[in-house]
Amino acid sequence: MVALVILLVGGVLAIGLWSWLAPRAGAQAAAGPRGRPGRTRVRDSSGPPGLRSARAITEQREALEAEDLAQMLEAHNAWRRRRGTMQDVELLVAGEARQAARGREATLADRELDQLLEATNARRRARGLPERDREEVRRRYGQDAVD
Q1: Is the pLDDT at 39 greater than 50, yes or no?
Q2: I need a labelling partner for 140 at 20 to 30 A (CA). Which of 37, 41, 95, 108 fits?
């Protein structure tokens, strides 16, 4: 039982000593020959592993916020590039306006043809002649007369 307590206390002391000395040893190992910086990454805190200073946490948050802002700006610029220039938008709107005008003209032409057929057929009924329909108008006057 005493051996177990000594073993546990020794383990806790070893972990504590390691966590206290590890950052300092890492900083010394980072310096290459003649004191030049090497490629080894140095931890930025001098506390136990896993714990960071308030300054390190704040700096990391600021870096993440700056990265988020850069990503949002890039996404917004990509959206603007996809949307196109003002000239492209104006051309699109003008094309849609022309298409709507053609649709209105076709609707008005259909109404006018229906009114003309109704008036013509009323006169033909009064004379006892057969009525005309769109197909007969198409055959007699051509496709453009109906459309």
Answers
A1: no
A2: 108
